[in-house]
Design goal:
7 strands; homodimer; 38% strand; 7-stranded mixed sheet
Chain lengths: 136, 136
């Protein structure tokens, strides 16, 4: 049918808790591939997969965490948000326990308190997304 | 890069008001193309276009209404929701004034009071979406 639409990705703001349910911070990754920098973990949705399933799979692949989805933060679709090509991000807020480990596209996984997020090091429009999360 | 993701579409629940700001109902279309039936107006997002711009364009193309976006209802991505191929719908709630006119993919445009929506005539997962809207 010749339909051409942007790529669809999912991103997850993972709120990490310890076993006593104390909030430890947000999980961000240091990207292994361009664009280099700090990012909210995420990835592309496969054909045949719901965005929720894609989110759970991608969070596991990148951080080794099993996340629980708490809700939708928003849909980010500015054509200029990804320097490589037009990607629509469906961004979820989620929750996880345990120790993240860098996997797949992540060179390193880091935990940041909300007050210590280095907004100038974030790639794509992830600084805007995290600000929307904090101000929601 | 060989990335393959589902198609991205937008759908709009249009709350129609008269010039005295009285709520008239929701705008639905009778589809001209398969699958035949009643649907929430919507369409595919173009590469290079935000989902918000796509929504405003599609609502105009299908109903001739200039809509104001009020917020996001949800993202619907069950691989079986569209019988033709996997389509992710970013569904917005919006508001419009004036008289809708059938255009483009719409054979007819109809206005339904919430209590009179014929859920059994809706295509795709639009009955579920409208129930989510009513129960939100």
């Amino acid at each position: 049918m010749g339909i051409k639409t942007p790529y669809v990705a999912v991103d997850g703001i993972i709120q990490l808790f310890d076993s006593n349910d104390n909030f430890r911070g947000i999980v961000l990754i240091e990207r292994k591939n361009p664009p280099y920098g700090l990012a909210i973990p995420g990835g592309f949705v496969d054909v045949g997969e719901s965005v929720e399933d894609a989110l759970i799979r991608e969070m596991k692949e990148e951080t080794d965490l099993d996340v629980e989805i708490l809700g939708l933060l928003g849909v980010y679709s500015d054509p200029a948000r990804d320097p490589r090509f037009h990607t629509v991000s469906v961004t979820f807020i989620c929750k996880a326990y345990g120790e993240p480990k860098a996997q797949s596209d992540a060179k390193e996984v880091k935990i940041f308190k909300l007050e210590e997020i280095p907004f100038d090091k974030l790639v794509f429009d992830h600084a805007k997304i995290l600000k929307d999360f904090i101000l929601r």
